[in-house]
Amino acid sequence: MTTKLIPQPFIDELLTRCDIVELIDGYIPLKKRGNSYLACCPFHSEKTPSFNVIAKKQFYHCFGCGASGNAISFNMQYLNQSFIEAVEALAARVGMQVPPKKNHDVTKQALDLYQTLEKVSQFYQKSLKNESIPIDYLKKRGLNGVIAKKYQLGYAPTGWHILENNLKSLRKELIASGMLILKDNSGTYDRYRHRIMFPIHDRRGRIIGFGGRAIDSDQQPKYLNSPETSIFQKGRELYGLYQTIQSNKNPEFIVVVEGYLDVISLAQYGIPHVVAALGTAISSYHIQILSKYTRKIVFCFDGDKAGQEAAWRALENSLPHLSDDLDVNFVLLPEKHDPDSFVRAEGQKQFLNYVNQSRSLSEFFLNTMSEGINLQQLAGKNQFMLAVKPYFQRIPNGPFRQLLLNELSRLTHIENHRIDEIMQASNDKGLNINKQAVIANRLERTPSRLVIAILLQHPELYQDSHELINDVELDEVEQAILPQLIKKISQTPHSTTAVLIETWREHAYFGLLNSLAFWDHQIPEDQLHKEFVDILNFLKKQALEKKINEYIAKLRKQGLTDGEKLFLQNLLKERHCENS
User: Fold this and answer.
1) pLDDT tens track for 88-115
2) How far is 180 from 22, CA to CA, in rounded Å?
3) Tens digits of per-residue pLDDT, 341-359?
4) Of 515, 511, 517, 461, which Cα lies nearest the Cα of 486?
5) Which of 468-477's residues contact partners 24+ apart within 8 Å by CB, and which partners?
6) CB-based contacts of 461: which residues, under 8 Å, 6+ apart?
């Protein structure tokens, strides 16, 4: 596990030295309000600030999307850093030296790949400048040198060993990155030959792979992506996302297209917020990523049958993420046009008109589902409802679901509550998921949970109550957490909430503890110590009563040994003393 590569005491000291308010304020302007600092959340689009940072806890939490954590978590989420990268960046910030890791293999391999691919990109860019054929090809596609430079376009020359011969010292790394293909007899050859090269960047701007576009019409395949590696998983990346967020961290909308050239062509025409999947369908994961940066996603696909199918797949994967914070719209271009050809033929203004007049997800969904069905007939209504049902059940509870219910009622002339019954009947699978999510987000207020939450948020209270804490018995999950929590507090008495939670980063309880760290326990600050002691006394009495009842039940059923009778007498005396 990555966290075990760095000693825990070092991480504790690092989090103690880091000021999370200063760290986050360097990226997002924070405004002080009472004991906390407030901002619009950087992890999802919102108009009303719900992102809170508390200096005392050295912790942040968004009441809108649930994002929470300490300084390490912030770097990992906001800067898309790995755990080790986040620790190293924070250590450099506060002047600490990260101790030697137990295992450098994974990090070193990733670093080698980043450096190798950067050098490969430089070679391809240089090759493009020296070759007339690829330059002429890009000019015919309407692309100029400025946009080619911005997206670092390059050219893989014709020949089987051009890249290999120019980067001989990196042969091993080139094989590992997939830029060289290893033959059976241990020889190698270049993966890309006579292709326009599109570097693929991660959200930090590092090159993680390539897409190669055929120049000649008889070249197959038309597009060729580099293979997946430890730093490149096609299904988790979006081409153009780095350039999009560099242009605007939270654009009004992001357009999703199908091809690399679509992205670049639209950018050249002054529409910079455009991304494309890497030869795969737009996935649910992609929707989640995009929703962190914008409140509106516009899918724009070719006007042919394949484009319509791609749009429908995008719709299906959008359903679980629909909310009042995210609009999903669709543009279907005229037949025989893709975004690249359309913007070159019609210009920026006409393309933006299409975007502004794009169909909402509900309109696109209902029009497609009702196509060819007579909703004036009972059989047609039944057919329509059965077709809609599996999609409807994937939509989370909320305003959008209710609005869609209203629209279904308008189309079918069936009352809302009857449609709701039809959608829930005989198949609760989708609904169960939503119910569990609601339960997970609304933590029940129990004495056991209060103990953990208060200790996390106010570890200083342990000093005056540690003897009492040792006598309590909590509910199953909280009891599993308590021993390690009080051990951590006793070992590091001045720990912040951030330090305490970090201990559980790779544990199943990490999510729960993050929630409890910002949980509103509803106890006023001036009454906190008294209430905490009262809760502990209640739990102590509860544990005592449980033991007494267990022994009495055993006495009635099978009798007690002399030792057990003596122990029961002592428990009864203890109860008497507690109550007197």
Assistant:
1) 999 999 999 888 755 545 567 888 899 9
2) 45
3) 999 999 999 999 999 999 9
4) 461
5) 468/533, 468/536, 468/537, 468/540, 469/536, 471/540, 471/543, 472/536, 472/539, 472/540, 472/543, 473/539, 473/542, 473/543, 473/546, 474/447, 474/448, 474/539, 475/446, 475/448, 475/449, 477/509, 477/512
6) 454, 455, 528, 529, 532
Of 506 and 480, more confident: 480
For helices 8-17 and 83-94, angle between their N-to-C axes, nearest 10 degrees: 50
Q: Identify the DSSP state of 75.
A: H
Instruction: Give yes or no for a contact between 123 and 167, defined as CB atoms under 8 angstroms apart.
Output: yes
- Centre a 10 Å sphere on the Cβ of residue 481 and count the other Cβ atoms it contains: 21
Exposure b/e, 280-303, CB count within 10 A at least 16 = b? eebeeebbebbbbbbbbbbbbbbb
Reported as a single tens digit per residue, the pLDDT across 164-180 is 999 999 999 999 999 99
What is the pLDDT at residue 438? 29
Orientation angle between helical segments 447-457 and 528-557, nearest 10 degrees = 140
Q: How many helices (H) and strands (E) does the chain have?
A: 27, 17
User: How far is the C-alpha of 461 from the C-alpha of 454, rounded, in Å?
Assistant: 8
Q: Which of 257, 252, 204, 250 is nearest to 231 (CA)?
A: 204
- The CATH architecture of the domain made up of 2-94 is Alpha-Beta Complex (3.90)
Classify 484 in phi/psi space as left (phi over 0), alpha (psi -120 to 50) or beta: alpha
Q: For residue range 106-146, list pLDDT tens digits in order.
A: 567 888 899 999 999 999 999 999 999 999 999 999 999 99
Single out the residue of 578, 465, 483 nearest to residue 532, CA to CA.
465
Answer whether the bond into residue 339 is a cis peptide, omega within 30°.
no
Query: Do the beta carbons of residue 364 and residue 311 sit within 8 Å?
Result: yes
Instruction: For the chain, give the mean pLDDT.
Output: 86
238-356: CATH class: alpha beta
Band (pLDDT 50/70/90 cuts) for residue 269 is very high
CB 38 within 8 A of CB 29: no
Angle at 342 (CA atoms; ends 336, 343), nearest 5 degrees: 170
Q: Which residues of 568-578 are buried (b: 16+ CB within 10 A; e: fewer)?
A: beebeeeeeee
User: Which pLDDT tens digit goes with each residue over 29-56?
Assistant: 999 998 899 999 888 767 788 899 999 9
Angular region, 95: left φ>0, alpha ψ -120 to 50, beta rest = left
DSSP 8-state secondary structure symbol assigned to residue 159: S
Tokens matching residue 315: 């719709």
Q: Any idea which fold 106-232 has? A: DNA primase DNAg catalytic core, N-terminal domain (3.90.980)
Q: Tens of pLDDT along 365-382?
A: 999 999 889 999 988 888
Q: Which has the closest alpha carbon to 24: 63, 70, 66, 56?
A: 70
Segment 298-309 shows an average pLDDT of 86
Query: What would the CATH number be for the domain defined by 447-579?
Result: 1.10.860.10
pTM for the whole structure: 0.58
Sign of CA dihedral 140, 143, 145, 149: negative
Report CA dihedral (222, 226, 231, 237) to the nearest 10 degrees. 0
Give residue 105's pLDDT.
52
CA distance linking residue 418 with residue 422, whole number of Å: 6
> Does residue 573 carry a pLDDT above 80?
yes
